[in-house]
Amino acid sequence: MTSSRPGPLRLRTKLLAVNLSLVLGALASTGNVDTGRSLLARELQSGTFSVFSALHDPLEGLVRVFAEVYPVDVCKSISSCTVAITGAAEETLTVPAIAEVPFINLTAKPELRECFLKCKLPHQGLRLEHVTIESSDGQALATWAVEEVDKLPQGKPKGVGMCVGPIFSSTPTTLDWLQYYAELGVSGIHMYAVVADFVLKPSNYMHEPGSLRALQLEHHRLVTWRAFHPSKWSAHYYGQWLIFNDCVFRTRNVYEYIMFHDRDEFIHFVGYAPKKVHLLSMFARLFGERDVPSITYWGALIHTHCHVEAVGRVGSRRARIGEEVEVQTYSGYDVWEEDLRAPNFTGCTWKTCHPKSVIRPLGVEVMNIHHYHLAAEGFRKEYKMVGPEAVLIKHVRCLLKPVSSVWESDTSKPLCSDEEVLRPNPQYGGMPVCPASTVQEVRARHSVAP
């Protein structure tokens, strides 16, 4: 096993134009599951330890390494971390490592598995150059540059942040989405672009055909981008376990609360227009006690018409041939309008009603996708569910053709029927998938009170 195995490319950059796009190239197929398992065993005979990121919180004196391993015994064999201290001639410090594979039993596919390390340093305030991960027999598994976690500017209070990933399709509402959360008072949005063959591979995934288009990377004052280029073996739920845990620890000293939402999800506080919401105080009220690590709430689907339009490049005086870019637009629902619908999430499950969570970053050790996985010491080991009478997610989704993953191109087709307004399907919160104006018209026609 070598210590020079390349890890995923890290990218942190400010983008210069709204119309800049990252074109994702398809890679060769890895074959079926049985073939893939055989190839994985053959290519990685001695095992592998692939680092995603190594982060240091100098305020706590803690190093965390987020990596992928094969087989999982590689993670279990880790015993220590040796850190190189900046400014000290070849000075190193070796400390015990606590290693775990938190999501080991999720699927039997031939994929790398997450390995999370904690290395507690004896001193706070150290500046580190790199960390070497070592097994119990003294073998160096990997060496990786150490990044300091984000630092809160002096005098600035902690705010509300958002971790978003993966970005594998150019979903509609992106610019509205950014403006929406900016109006709510989000302090920063950390977006992770996942670039891999499985992103573009044709399938029946719900986001097609968006997943086959160039990824539009919008610049915004709140957005920080990072690109994750996983290997062909690290398709484990699009890398979200790596992404979210990296994001939580990286921003732990900057935000009081961290949200996890995709670019087609809008948080809605019942009884409040978006521009009347102060997010920090809202969450303070919903969390309540200081030892609550997380709150969770349900989401309801809202269908819209989606289509692609060609627009001129931003900043150009006129659109010339070849200067247009394709952007996805939507119609049939306005997230800024008052919403008259009252969802009822009775009977919801984590799949049908797609719950999302907000966490205190210092209160969570390991983050799952829709819930926290492990609370920090001193925090409650329970979920706090907030009812839909207080808050819910509006999950905006393109209207699809029946039994298909293809968008419905007929923008004159109704987004819902009278039946759906009067007797909405209990799945997805029983919310009729149509705009507020339609709800008013149908209810008035049938003399039904809101």
From TrEMBL:
Membrane topology: Single-pass membrane protein
Keyword Transmembrane: yes
GO terms under cellular component: cytoplasm; membrane
Gene Ontology molecular function, alphabetical: glycosyltransferase activity
Enzyme's top EC category: transferase
E.C. no: 2.4.1.-
Subcellular location per the Swiss-Prot or TrEMBL entry: Membrane
Superkingdom per UniProt: Eukaryota
A Pfam family: Glyco_transf_92
Alphabetical keyword list: Glycosyltransferase, Membrane, Signal, Transferase, Transmembrane, Transmembrane helix
Main location, first listed in the record: membrane
InterPro entries cross-referenced by the UniProt entry: Glyco_transf_92
Signal peptide residue numbers: 1-28
Transmembrane domains' residue ranges: none
The family this protein is said to belong to: Belongs to the glycosyltransferase 92 family.
Protein name: Glycosyltransferase family 92 protein
Organism: Coccomyxa viridis
